[in-house]
């Protein structure tokens, strides 16, 4: 399945803004996902899929990771619609609250590991 579509200049501009100004939780999680640190999987940050921009995606595993701040408690319908759209295209979506990433980083990384590898245990705990 190809996920390549023409990206509008407006979406490109939004992606650049999001990459320049990540939340503290996004910045912290990116330190664990970048450079194939998690089981050799490549993650992209603030990546456009269709007309949405996802926080993190591993295209190889078709896994989307969203890090939600307080504003998401008021836009649950939108988030549900977006998750359904991504799911219909073969992606699995994991959502974490900012405070989960900041206060329970190891648990978040472990949950992502399991999503990537199924029920197999990591050979050693994922590195911090």
TrEMBL record:
Gene Ontology molecular function, alphabetical: endonuclease activity
Transmembrane segments: none
Range of residues in the leader sequence: none
InterPro entries (alphabetical): DUF559, Endonuclease_DUF559_bact, Restrct_endonuc-II-like
Positions of the DUF559 domain: 12-116
Keyword terms, alphabetized: Endonuclease, Hydrolase, Nuclease
Coiled-coil spans in chain: none
Annotated Pfam families: DUF559
CDD domains in UniProt: Endonuclease_DUF559
Name by which UniProt lists this protein: Endonuclease domain-containing protein
Organism whose genome encodes this protein: Nitrosococcus wardiae
